[in-house]
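Exercise 7b. Backbone tokens:
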């Protein structure tokens, strides 16, 4: 069974290191799953006033999340935490109360940073939301991609072969995780 996996990138910058990693994941995993980047830049701010009569963009986003077999979050770290735009997307799909589009959705998280710590704080802060929203998160292997600015060529291709090998192992584990969760 081929899983349909959504990749949510926590950085809005078109040339972000996180988007480069997400695009690399799609290429590396092409034989194992079907993946697409789920855009979040167009989402409005989460606002309880929208819950009774949600905007179409919110309805469409929630339906897309529900249609996917699993989600991979690829995120930078801002000030030792999750970027606001990513937290906003999580909140939008979890509302209104009792209509959580994330419910039971298998997830993984890869944090990416130009620094050495690889987004450790954002990775773990994101996992707190997973627990509350009943999103079973793959625990191992963990993925913190540090010094990410050194991993790509000038065309945005991942050229560090040890990172390619690590991401392939991560994706293989993730596909097995999704299979166990969806069984």
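Sequence design result:
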């Amino acid at each position: 069974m081929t899983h349909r996996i959504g990749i949510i990138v926590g950085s809005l910058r078109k040339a972000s290191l996180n988007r480069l990693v997400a695009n690399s994941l799609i290429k590396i995993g092409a034989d194992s799953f079907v993946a697409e980047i789920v855009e979040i830049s167009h989402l409005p701010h989460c606002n309880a006033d929208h819950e009774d009569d949600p905007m179409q963009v919110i309805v469409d986003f929630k339906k897309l999340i529900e249609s996917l077999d699993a989600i991979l979050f690829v995120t930078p770290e801002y000030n030792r935490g999750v970027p606001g735009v990513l937290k906003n997307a999580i909140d939008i799909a979890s509302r209104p109360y009792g209509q959580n589009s994330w419910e039971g959705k298998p997830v993984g998280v890869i944090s990416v940073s130009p620094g050495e710590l690889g987004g450790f704080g954002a990775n773990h802060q994101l996992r707190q939301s997973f627990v509350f929203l009943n999103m079973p998160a793959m625990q191992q292997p963990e993925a913190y991609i540090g010094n990410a600015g050194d991993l790509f060529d000038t065309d945005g291709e991942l050229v560090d072969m040890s990172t390619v090998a690590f991401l392939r192992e991560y994706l293989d584990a993730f596909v097995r995780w999704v299979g166990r969760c969806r069984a």
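Instructor comment: The longest helix spans residues 161-182. The mean pLDDT is 95.
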